[in-house]
Write a structure and sequence with these properties.
Structural class: mainly alpha
Radius of gyration: 22 Å
Number of strands: 0
CATH class of one domain: Mainly Alpha
Largest sheet: none
CATH architecture of one domain: Orthogonal Bundle
Order of helices and strands: HHHHHHHHHH
CATH superfamily of one domain: Winged helix-like DNA-binding domain superfamily/Winged helix DNA-binding domain
């Protein structure tokens, strides 16, 4: 059960407020604002502020009236924002999608510009409020693996994981010691 003050802090966090913003809005010290964030994460069993945004929307928020507008985010950006909503960092998203973390940062910057959000929490809040990111969260199917036929997927594996074709004593890309 959350206290009234924790719900106030949760709403500010969901809107993308920093600890400094929360402290000013609630007339509390910076360390108290930080403690509220930590306590919320601990109480709710969450690890990232981005996950607090999702929790807030699932429990407390009334969605914005702009939900039926056409999407301004690309398919790839939607894929990335879903992973942010799950609490993944830029590097974790990059590993999940097999792209560079710099590419993820570029996509994040583009999304923040399109949705006029200052940080990931504000980005998630705006995406949820406008319907770009629907609840409940359902991760979109990965484009890479679904687009390639199975006979081509085997060649994406590192050479050590491929089966050696019959009649050869070494796999492609490496030598077998005899």
């Amino acid at each position: 059960m959350l206290t009234t003050r924790e719900i106030q802090a949760l709403e500010l966090i969901a809107r993308g407020s920093t600890d400094r913003d929360i402290a000013a809005a609630l007339a509390i010290s910076l360390s108290t604002a930080h403690k509220h964030r930590e306590n919320l994460q601990r109480k709710l069993g969450l690890h990232k502020s981005a996950q607090l945004v999702i929790y807030y929307f699932e429990r407390f928020a009334e969605l914005d009236q702009r939900r039926n507008l056409p999407s301004v985010l690309s398919e790839r950006e939607l894929e990335i924002i879903h992973l942010f909503a799950e609490g993944l960092s830029d590097k974790q998203v990059a590993r999940e999608l097999n792209i560079s973390d710099l590419t993820v940062r570029k996509h994040r910057g583009n999304m923040q510009g399109k949705l006029q959000a200052a940080n990931v929490c504000a980005l998630l809040f705006t995406a949820l409020a406008t319907g770009e990111l629907p609840l409940p969260l359902v991760r979109p199917a990965s484009r890479c693996q679904a687009a390639l036929p199975p006979h081509l997927l085997q060649w994406l594996l590192p050479a050590a994981h491929r089966q050696v074709p019959h009649g050869l004593d070494k796999p492609a890309g490496g030598f077998l010691a005899h």
